[in-house]
Design goal:
Nucleotidyltransferase, domain 5; 22% strand; elongated; Ribonuclease HI, Chain A; five-stranded mixed sheet; single chain
Length: 203
């Protein structure tokens, strides 16, 4: 499980200190000018609540928020790879409903490969479901770069060509080559919004 986080809401439908991201999400989603932040301890959160949002939302924070806003209508993806079993898996969560909409599991791979496949799977799902107003969140800058370049630039060898994971990579690269997409792929802001909802909790 991931470490416990504490969340402060200065401006939302309700203010205070909260321990669950799901509750916070419901209290700030759609609120214009909502101000909230995650902290490592309850004491830090309570102190921050008293200090006010101005102490934490400087000019740099505002630029980040304007460049990467929070969208409720979105798919959030994440991947995990076990060092013990070598099994790699990924999933996509519809943030609007909180439900898992796709997932995959492979006998080998890496986190970055999983993140790459998850993003492409998410883009394909959004197109198929005609969710034109959706964005896609990932917390892997490497995988996002690979998607922009249309190629999974991994050094992983594994079972090599012909294996299931490599067939999946080729299929994803082919999809990117053959499809145009307008969906924004954005970085999930863990510090501001809490843990990625698609996270497997194995950190």
């Amino acid at each position: 499980m991931g470490k416990q986080k504490w969340y402060v809401i200065w401006q939302g439908t309700k203010t205070g200190v909260f321990s669950e991201w799901k509750e916070v999400e419901g209290l700030v989603a759609g609120v214009k000018g909502a101000k909230y932040k995650a902290f490592a301890t309850k004491q830090e959160a309570e102190t921050a609540l008293g200090r006010g949002w101005e102490a934490y939302y400087g000019a740099v924070k505002k630029v980040v928020q304007e460049a990467i806003p929070f969208f409720q209508q979105s798919i959030v993806v994440d991947a995990a790879c076990s060092s013990a079993t070598k099994i790699m898996e990924y999933q996509g969560i519809d943030l609007a409903t909180g439900k898992q909409v796709f997932a995959a599991r492979y006998e080998e791979g890496t986190n970055n490969i999983g993140e790459f496949l998850a993003i492409v799977h998410g883009l394909a799902w959004i197109q198929k479901e005609k969710k034109a107003d959706y964005v896609l969140y990932s917390d892997s800058l490497i995988a996002m770069k690979w998607v922009n370049e249309g190629r999974c630039k991994t050094s992983f060898i594994g079972a090599g060509n012909g294996s299931r994971i490599w067939e999946a990579i080729k299929k994803a690269e082919q999809w990117l080559a053959e499809h145009k997409f307008s969906t924004q792929v954005l970085k999930w802001q863990t510090e501001e919004w809490g843990e990625n909802p698609a996270d497997y909790g194995r950190k």
